[in-house]
Amino acid sequence: MKRLAPLLATVGLIAASVPLLTAPQAAAAQTPGYMRQQPDWHRCRPDQPATYECATLKVPLDYQHPQGRMLDLAISRIKTENPGKRRGVLLFNPGGPGASSLFRPVDLDTRIPKDVRDQYDLIGFDPRGVGKSSPISCGGLSANERGLGGPYRPETFASDVAWARSVADKCREKSGDVIPHITTRNTARDLDVIRAALGERKISYLGYSYGTYLGAVYSQMFPQRTDRFVLDSGVDPQRVWRGMIQVWATEAEPAFARWTRWAAERSDRYGLGTTPEEVSATFWGLVARFDRDPIVHDGEKITGDNLRSEPSLFFSPYGASAVIKFLKSLAENGPGPANGDAPDLKQLLAGSRPSGATASELNTPGPGAAADADGMAVYWSVVCGDTDAWPRDPDQYARDAARDKAKYPLYGDFASNIKPCAFWQRPVEPATPMKTRANVLTVQNEWDSQTPLVSGQGLHKALKGSRMVLALGGEKHGVYLSEPASCADVTVNKYLATGRLPAADVTCQDPPPYP
Question: d(Cα 297, Cα 314) in Å, to the nearest integer?
Fold first, then answer.
């Protein structure tokens, strides 16, 4: 012991000479570098306001191995003009998967009411794999390889399988090292990197369509960081992701029935039938007619399957009636003087889609997914990579599609037919369970075609502690800040301004969008 005394004394002197870290210093020492970034803000574009600033962060490709490869994460902001009233930051996601929100601060800067706008710096970002955030690609998908697949027929199912396998193979060949990490959970982790880089303890958030699921996942992974969250046009967490495609089929049927009643009441205007049954017979007669003998309009062949491939059409009775009236005239008279004054069919179809959708969503195969090849890469990466619930046996898809074609004749076989997910790599982690209380506000239109009412109700039910605002009669995909304004805006504005949820769910009535 005597021999150790000098050594112990020396150790004591060394220890005494090392200063103890304060609690914040100790915490910072344990915080990974990617959570301690300082954005280098700069003007985004010379043709945009100087207040619109951009920066690029670095995030781990794989958060389980944060010392490995990094991805770019492009972010943007417009700061509040009233710092004295500033509460924090409001992040946006417009949908997808595959849609950018980098420009959204400019878009929303003048649309948000001043008492809300003053409280927040508006923050946009390109999700990982999108736009300026290390974009991924499937390497030049052909026009036939884009989209969500076609109708089911036993005689063509082999080609459907080949399509799904080809898309999966091309995506894997071009971006296979990145694709497994383009998931909602990793995008939620990226949101928290943005929060840290902005120096915020919490974030507020406005997410539409797919963005509602991203916001829900964040609220479960980072509940202590979740402030005022508005989830608009909800994705049901219990349906991700095959069920969210199939719900378009199940909910198109009541929308179709509503349309037949509406058109029958206006038979003098549209001439589609005087009863719902007659209107339905007119539509299915056109489907059969165009399947037997497709017509060509503006250089494009129109088949009966083309008519069935637009389930969103029937959520807008006005647009659906205009389209079917036009197609009925084409079938009866052919192209010519009788149709000389008819608007372009593409314009009619675009007009029939919900007018509340963002520009990136209007030409898409799903709720917000970009229709270009790069957008489809992100879409399939998330849809296939978020969950292991996709069947791996092609024959299962054939059975499901045959069953659902009989049950939901408008779109059932399209929805349940085989998808690239059958050949996708297994997810790196399971989907996020919705177990933690989330005091968020969900918002929903009654006749949203992309995220139907049952889906929005499913999101509300899954998030314990949430409140729901339902706009009866609303047909748009996207409620808050749409044009014309929704009756739901009052409740959303109050929540964003005060942080107080309604005492109970709110139901309001939108005025009819047409006579």
Answer: 21
